[in-house]
Write a structure and sequence with these properties.
Blueprint: E1 2-6, H1 11-22, E2 26-31, E3 41-45, H2 51-61, E4 65-68, H3 76-87, H4 89-92
Length: 96
């Protein structure tokens, strides 16, 4: 399965990326400031607060599943708006 883990460099995201990679899935994981270190994972920079960036990344990677693990305790825009940005990406994707 081709899986995108948003917030893959955090505590939860890095564990999901590790387990997905070990299970033989094709895994890409995003980061804001620094890539994770899990082998077998494609690390992609992403600011989830930018809807256009989220749309571009998802359209380019073409995941079968997207898992949101992005969280910043003191940043509502990352935690809530960021999640909304990748949940509604299909509306913004170029028509096929």
């Amino acid at each position: 399965m081709r899986t995108l883990i948003v917030g893959g460099s955090g505590f939860l995201g890095s564990e999901l990326a590790r387990q997905g990679s070990q299970a033989g899935h094709e895994v890409a994981a995003t980061y804001l400031t620094r890539a994770g270190e899990t082998a077998g994972v494609e690390w992609l920079p992403l600011d989830v607060r930018r809807r256009e960036s989220v749309n571009e990344l998802i359209c380019a990677f073409q995941p079968e599943a997207v898992i949101n693990a992005a969280f910043r305790q003191t940043d509502w825009t990352t935690t809530a708006t960021g999640a909304a940005n990748h949940c509604r990406w299909r509306k913004l994707a170029p028509s096929q």
